[in-house]
Amino acid sequence: MIFPFQPLTDSYVHADEGKVSISTATLNVRTGPGLSYPVLTQVHRNQKFTIVETKKDWYKISTERGQGWVANWLVTRESSGTVNDSGQQGIVSTNGLRLRKGPSTADPVVTVLNKGDKVTISETSGSWLAVQSGNASGWVHKDYVNQTKSSSTSAAPSKKQEAKQGVITAGTLNVRKSPSLSSPIAGAVHRGNTVSITGSISGWYEIQFGNAKAWISDNYVELSSTSAEAPPSSSGFTGMITVNSLNVRSEASLNGNIIGKVNKGEKYPILTERNNWFEIKLSGGKSGWIAGWFVQKTVADKQKKPSSSPQGADGTVTILHNGTNIRSSADVQSEVVKRANSGETFSVTGKKGDWYEIKLADGSTAFVAGWIVSVRTSNGAEASPSRNTSGGIRNKVITIDPGHGGRDSGTVGTRGTLEKLLTMKTAQLLADKLKSAGAEVVLTRKNDEYVSLPSRVSLSHYYGSDAFISIHFDSIYDSSVAGHTTYYNKSYQKDLAYGVHDSLASRLPTRDRGVRVGDYHVIRENKQAAILLELGFLSNPTEEANMTSHYYQDLAATAVYHGLNDYFSN
């Protein structure tokens, strides 16, 4: 069958229009459309650039250093079209219509639509329509969609006015500039955040996002009967740091003096915003500027009145991860007095909110976050986990599938590294972390043995796995290609894929290659939520050197652990 809008050759290039917004912290702009081309310059998260032309999976953009190419899976395309707030309906008029990621024939195919399929139209860009069909969204050419009028004889209002308050129920929910899944992301809100709802259309709520209006899906909001409240901070935003050891500067520029540092996961009130720099309020009342491309902007948390002193508690805590921060007070902004490693145990002397006060070797006391430790009471029983702890994972059945094994060595690195050995080491580290958090762990193999693909899937079905994680390392003829990729095959596996991949992307030092649909047996034939991870390229000498280190394997295992915890907490 010949599908509409099939590119004639692999070298298909065409002039384009519109803009892209950078989706990663730092992205290389290359002199040609491929990872083997030299780096022209680097751009950063949320910066916007004009598209000059498109070639396969690459966009050519204009930068201050000249024109260069960026990978389309690491950017968000912003069309120059208009938003259709009325949610106009349409019916596909041909079989085999390709639903694409962007409004051009060079954009990747999301899925294929058939004659008679119904779509909701949210935006137009030239001859293209942004549509949603079921759980899939993307772009199709307007010549192959019959647009239908509203069943009402009179024009329906584009937006219903609301004055409500809602609480976010998803772990992390994207906030968009318009009510469409293809609309640019303006920020994010998190579970427990309170939002002021000012309007609605089918499937979407308009919310007050700082000093502007934005949109969120109504599937992840629990309405409150109380009236909407104004955000508690001056800008209405909190910034969560996405990298370790981020410099705080005296002015909104890389030329500013460094006056402090902040770390990954810490949150600070945003005072003002200037040219993609955020002025934040530090502990002690000081303020400074941080680069906005290393910050996830979200609505300000409601201030909780802290208890005046730690509540009584006893027992012990066991550290789950290497490098865990032990702080001077029950606050992520407080001073780090010690870093502890996985397996270290401390006596509990008190509890303050979600934090445990513990006794150190020198007799002094300090605090550790309850969501990164395993707790046992004085009688030896495991204590109930705190909010946001590994309680999401507790009692879940998680099958870990170390790829290859035995006579199947998998790929072989440039220095002779065997994939089957790396997958086993990483899987065992992940299994240890999950068991410490109370999960029931099943390994498809426990040593260097061959296990058939159907047998691996059968284990997933037999144990009724809540999640199946297949661990692999990649290889390709081009030794310059690098990065990690997450694959899923079925629609019910998609949430797990994005939950784990978001954690990998925020923690691994390698290039983020995104989430993709893959035709692999262990996920294709799996009736459970199952994903396949490619944690790097053994064909890349630099990545091979990194991946053979215990540090990288433990970092990858930790990232998967946190991704599973987020997934099960949603």
From TrEMBL:
Boundaries of every SH3b domain copy: 15-78, 87-149, 163-225, 236-299, 312-377
Residue ranges, compositional bias (Polar residues): 380-392
A Pfam family per the record: Amidase_3
Region feature Disordered, mapped onto this chain: 380-413
Keywords (A to Z) from UniProt: Cell wall biogenesis/degradation, Hydrolase
Coiled coil: none
SMART domains per UniProt: Ami_3, SH3b
Annotated InterPro entries: Cell_Wall_Dynamics_Protein (IPR052354), MurNAc-LAA_cat (IPR002508), N-acetylmuramoyl-L-ala_amidase (IPR017293), SH3-like_bac-type (IPR003646)
UniProt name for this protein: SH3 domain-containing protein
Source organism of the structure: Rossellomorea oryzaecorticis
